[in-house]
């Protein structure tokens, strides 16, 4: 179905013939193939850092259909750092609460963000076309400020060749073929990645024998803005599970679990879909079908995400089931991890071996997401009668007993990966809260003015709490910002002290540009900080 709400924004980067098309290929420092959320987030981040980037997309703008809708707190924090967070929050439907049902009985409800003092909510629901549009709008604003970002629509990748110092790309356009060279290529071209196919790289994992119907309906309804999930829903022909979410513009997302042996064409007939929705909403409910699709669970990834000068991100590198909102969110976090590392490499401030840690860290994240997705799938669709009996017993117990609720898995929802024990980590010499340990993302907190994550920004930062840090301006040409806070003055709610110090009187944190924690100490010398900084930028000995 065509959604006219997106038409005005669809051609955000209409095709234009490339000058001197038949001339020798022009070399670019970074080329991104794929203009979805991941590609645009990477382009915006690199461009704002001053690294020139060319985005090639086989379309002319944002895609149609809502597709991904749940964007998690960490993704919103990344987008806020890039400048697009506020418009996403203003448009999105904010939610923190979810409810789980078994048949017509409510099992329990959960709050994904029970504590106060965070700028971003646990989740917003926002159709993917809006998410992409807001990133492209911010790219346009960055271009106006001089950011070296170029987007070319209807430039489709059809082939490539890898060389020691560049990648040669063969492109097809309405005016014919041409070539460009990329010192570094980021493949953000989705689950059916042309880049991956051309290179003959594997994409291994599981495809689960089940199908899920997505139906976006436009209607006025007084349901609360919560995530409602049913195991064995009581509605006629609704399948083994069902899900209800609110989106902007009075659009509601409904998912039905249909099983494996289905006729897709039949299931996508409007009358068939309406029968299922009528059974759920009640006869006489007024709504319009806005967009429909059928998908299967797939949990797969590449063995590694770096292949020489080609780097894979998002669905081109890994794929998970939609339950848990781990697809687009993990992809944006890929871009967040990769952009600062590639920026340093392009500028000659770090060795290209730093990019190996992109693969190391994001493979860890992909494995975590795949594990959670597989577990959710197995709980949603028990493979044996014993498994189903266990699942239903857990649901029954969870109605009355809190101990059983963590066992209920209707899709563990997206959280950022903690890079415990990985290569870029420095010392953890502060007996502080586990949530702010080395490898974790920084927790947000309110300040006397604004929020902590906004203050940290997107540079290497030394955060000193209740202590004077060593005087350091940079390390081997890499800027290091220092922020000194006194909790008695700068921490009006006590959240910074609680989230970073715990029972400790003071502390020093070294924080990466993607706001993951490199190291923490009670006190630290300039030499200790410099050593941790060198290691975090791939220059350690």
Describe the overall structure.
Helices cover 30% and strands 27% of the residues. With 541 residues, the chain is of the alpha+beta class. Strand 26 and strand 27 (517-521) form a beta hairpin. It is globular.
Relevant terms:
single chain, 27 strands, eight-stranded mixed beta sheet, alpha+beta, 15 helices, 541 residues, globular, seven-stranded mixed beta sheet
| Alpha plus pi helix count | 15
Report the helical percentage: 25-40%
Largest sheet: 8 strands, mixed
Average the pLDDT over all residues and give the rounded result.
Answer: 92
Number of strands: 27
Q: What's the alpha carbon Rg, rounded to whole Å? A: 24 Å
**Unreliable stretches:** 1-8
Determine the structural class based on helices, strands and strand pairing: alpha+beta
Beta content:
25-35%
So what's the overall shape? globular
Please outline what is shown here:
With 541 residues, the chain is of the alpha+beta class. The chain is 30% helix and 27% strand. The strands form five sheets. Strands 1, 2, 8, 9, 10, 11, 19 and 20 form an eight-stranded mixed sheet that branches. Strands 6-5-14-15-16-13-17 form a seven-stranded mixed sheet, sandwiched between helices. Strands 22-27-26-23-25-24 form a six-stranded mixed sheet.
